[in-house]
Amino acid sequence: MVDNNKFIVSHAPFWHDGSRISTRNYNMAFAAFPAILLGIIYYGMPAVGVVSLSISSAIIWEFVFCRVTKYSVTIGDGSAAIIGMLFGMLLPATAPWWLVILGTFVAVIIGKQIYGGIGANPFNPVVVAIAILMISWKDIFDFNEALINYDFDFAMVYPLAALKHFGVSAVDSFSMGDLLMGKQSGGIGSTFGLGLIAGGIYLIIRGIIRWEIALSFLAGIFITALIFNMADSAHYAGPAVHLFAGYTLIGAFFLATEDSSSPVNFISMLIYGAGAGLLTVLIRNIGVYVDGVIFAILIMNLVNPLLDKIKPKAIGKVA
Amino acid sequence: MIKRSFIGLLKPRLKYGSVAETPSLKQIPIPKEITLFSNCPFDKKNLLLKKKATVKTGQKLLLYKESDEYVVSSVTGQVTSISSYTGDFGLSYTAITIEVSDDEEIDDEFKDVSKDASKDASLEIIKNFLAFAPGNPPGKLFSDKDKSLNTIVVCCADSDLLITTNQYIVKSDIDAIKNGINILKTATGVNDIIMVASQSQMHELSTIGEKINQVNDTYPSALPHLIMKNILGKVVPAGKNPEDIGVCFISAEAVASIGNAFNSGQIPVTKTFTLVNKDGSKSLVSARIGTPAGDIFKAFNITLNENDRIIFGGPMTGSSVYSEKHPVQPDTDAIIVQDRDDIPVISDYPCTNCGDCIRVCPANIQINLLVRFLETGQYEEAADQYDLYSCIECGLCSYVCVSGMPIFQYIRSAKYELDRANTAEATNNG
Ligand code: SF4
Ligand code: SF4
């Protein structure tokens, strides 16, 4: 006892449930895989090219950034890879290589790293990148134009563009089944509705994304679209098209739910999700953009710090 | 270690340990040397107890002049050293080492004072002789005039995971508990005794004839703050303890200590605890207070390797010690040996805002925001705006944190630092 009385500060708890950021990200990739696979089946090698380039360039950007700023290299956590993957999933298969590389630069460096890296980004990095590119190179995101050279056994039409330009009758030809099976034009990994839903449910069950956000987002879209549709069904499409076309599903399960830029309290999550859903339909129906998911999520990211103020009362708190 | 289930949407199911139908108890022989820890800061100048002093089993040892802090020797022998030891947060305490002699003699001071003690006297006796008995009976609280206790909660369930110590005492020594409760009632005048027990104990306890309330079998339901909220229906204000609102918590073991002490005229000196081996196997052990952990490992053929971990207390709230010489204390309900391969890594990753901690926190704290302040040492803000003091110290946030942040450690240090700053301020102003 005399010469060996050295004790150290406790670090309870001594157990951990084993969860890890990397495991979460692997699961995310796993959940997105079916949607990407169908995109590859439909669009072939160009799709493989875009997605691979997107993932690898995102990783490289993060690596370079960490090296330059002398932070420890964080690419092992898989978050850069996921950013690249999601970014690729949103692009048309015909996206040029420079756009992919530029996009991942914006996502990884401007969207995430300059704020201090993982957990510190106020906006979803992927959404930021897509938004900037969408504004700057509108034509590339005109899925009808972009994918014009593909010949499929289904009507190669981007439903939201058809809706915007030709009205409700133009989307009548889409059956629910077609939309769910990805028989529509769109981003590589964002058209296979069934795959995205399955992936989303998987992520919800595993507790990797917050179900409150995903479901309230879909509910927000459904209800808003329904109201528009009931008010003027000649002008505004019903909820089904809004739910299963464009970036809705990938937005619900993979974009709106990004950890850092979304709230964590129950009520806040519901407001956040429903707000994004509402804005999506508003932009689609009365805004100038064809799809509203991206901007709706950005706007909700912006109000997220305010939503964080709505919090349950801690126990024993004397108000 | 219980891992996250595949269905991560569900809350972790951390079930409390339960004791076998007829548990066996392994007695550790009296060691050659024991060490007693007192929470008193080491203060060489005012030391009353002297080196070389001979002490008897059950003898109360006053430590310092003008202080009523004491320890109780668990063996007969000679004091070989009185030194300082450094505990949590680098605080200094007093460690008394006693070399055990061959023949055991029982001290009879307690016998003399406790015999035919009057009602008022017994309260003082509990305070003055039994604070170092197994389970640390909170004698000081009982006689604290400021607190005006109106309820005593006897905790028969164990509050942290894996531990079955109190459950064992309930199984093996129910008469002592009964006796202890009667003594407590007369001594304190508090008639509102609430027994809190797990489902499997309800039957055993029914013979006691007191109100029994069942506590949920999932951690952290048996922590005092949650018992207060869920069973007593009283919410302890943030930063306060149950005794501040008139409720005193005492473990079944401490009650049994009181019962046994008055019954036998001897201060109990043997501590019962749960030993958890590297493979997770549990044994109930009894050893003299002050027995070094190493002696216990020897008795069980446990070998420790470099980088293994010794934990005193439960896996969620205990503390790790750095030496096999660390002794069993009156409040050591468990000793856990953790293999180095089972030790979770603490990372320097920041919070990713995943929200998992929010889902598990029983106190509704915005942990994702709180940690940002704690990490940067902004403790005042953490306390004022982010409910630092509502934390009931269950450790679940660290347990689930995807980033592997030592959140609970941050919280404890923040509270400690703030308390220290406040005390310093109070002394300066006073
Ligand atoms: S230790 Fe963590 S989970 Fe438990 S009450 Fe405190 S903040 Fe909440
Ligand atoms: S569990 Fe950890 S990473 Fe997740 S929100 Fe809480 S503190 Fe942040």
Overall mean pLDDT of chain B stands at 91
Query: Biggest sheet of chain A, open or closed, and with what strands and sense?
Result: none
What is the terminal-to-terminal distance of chain A? Answer: 49 Å
Class derived from helix and strand content of chain A: mainly alpha
Q: What's the β-strand tally of chain A?
A: 0
Outline the low-pLDDT stretches of chain B: none
Radius of gyration of chain A: 21 Å
Helical coverage of chain A, percent range: 55-70%
**How can the largest sheet of chain B be summarized?**
6 strands, mixed
Small-molecule binders here are: iron/sulfur cluster
Give average pLDDT of chain A, whole number: 90
CA radius of gyration of chain B is 22 Å
Greatest contact pair?
A-B, 48 and 84 residues
% residues in beta strands of chain A: under 5%
Basic shape of chain B: globular
Structural class of chain B: alpha/beta
Low-pLDDT residue spans of chain A: 1-9
Q: Alpha-carbon distance between the termini of chain B?
A: 49 Å
Overview of the molecule:
The complex is a heterodimer of chains A (319) and B (430). Chain A is mainly α and 319 residues long. Chain A has two domains: 21-139, no CATH class; 147-307, no CATH class. Chain A has helices spanning 21-43, 45-69, 79-90, 97-110, 125-136, 143-146, 159-166, 168-171, 176-180, 193-205, 211-231, 239-244, 248-255, 266-286, 293-307. Mean pLDDT of chain A is 90; it is low at 1-9. Among the domains of chain B are: 31-103; 270-342, Phosphatidylinositol 3-kinase Catalytic Subunit, Chain A, domain 1 (Ubiquitin-like (UB roll)), CATH 3.10.20; 356-429, no CATH class. In chain B, 29% of the residues lie in helices and 19% in strands. Chain B is built from 14 helices and 16 strands. Chain B has a six-stranded mixed sheet with strand order 1-13-12-16-14-15, covered by helices on one side. In chain B, strands 2-7-6-3 form a four-stranded antiparallel sheet, with no helix packed on it. In chain B, helix 5 (174-188) packs across helix 8 (252-264). Chain B starts with 24 loop residues before the first strand and ends with a helix. The chains are: A mainly alpha (319), B alpha/beta (430). At the A-B interface, loops of A face strand 6, strand 15, helix 13 and helix 14 of B. The structure holds iron/sulfur cluster (SF4) (2 copies).
